[in-house]
């Protein structure tokens, strides 16, 4: 019974984390190139709201990645679940999801770094 509750908890956590990433994408400030390092083409620094939005997106991505890892560990400890997950391609799907999330996170971190460099250039 604990096994079932644990699986449900991990599944819910994964769903909530994924939902947060999707929701954050829809909250993008229009006209502000804040994803995937696109701010480097802009000469104006990010607003505090844009930086907060990026920080929230990074936190949601980290939460989603953590949930995937916890679920992977859980599945790997149960031979029957592992066999089912392998047969259904779950591991491959999660690798692709992790790759997309890490790419997005990298872009967001680059955006923050570019903004920091832009601000340092303005203060000199």
Question: How would you briefly describe this protein structure?
Answer:
79% of the residues lie in helices and 0% in strands. It has helices spanning 2-26, 48-76, 79-88, 90-123. The protein is elongated and about 60 Å long.
Characterize the structure shown.
The chain is an all-alpha fold and 124 residues long. It has one domain. It is built from four helices and no strands. About 16% of the residues have low confidence.
Through-space gap between termini = 62 Å
Count of strand segments: 0
Q: Beta-strand percentage?
A: under 5%
Structural class: mainly alpha
H/E element sequence: HHHH
Question: Portion of residues in helices?
Answer: over 70%
Q: Which consecutive residue ranges, at least 5 long each, have pLDDT under 50?
A: 18-37
> What is the C-alpha radius of gyration, as a whole number of Å?
18 Å
Looking at this protein, list some descriptive labels:
mainly alpha, 0% strand, elongated, 4 helices, 124 residues
Strand and helix layout:
Layout: H1 2-26, H2 48-76, H3 79-88, H4 90-123
Helix pairs in contact: 1-2, 2-4
């Amino acid at each position: 019974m604990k096994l079932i509750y644990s699986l449900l908890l991990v599944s819910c956590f994964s769903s909530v984390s994924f939902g947060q990433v999707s929701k954050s994408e829809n909250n993008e400030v229009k006209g502000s190139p804040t994803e995937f390092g696109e701010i480097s083409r802009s000469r104006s620094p990010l607003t505090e709201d844009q930086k907060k939005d990026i920080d929230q997106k990074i936190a949601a991505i980290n939460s989603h990645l953590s949930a995937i890892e916890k679920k992977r560990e859980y599945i790997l400890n149960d031979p029957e679940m592992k066999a089912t997950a392998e047969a259904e391609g779950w591991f491959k799907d999660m690798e692709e999801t992790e790759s997309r999330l890490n790419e997005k996170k990298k872009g967001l971190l680059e955006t923050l770094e570019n903004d920091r460099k832009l601000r340092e250039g303005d203060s000199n």
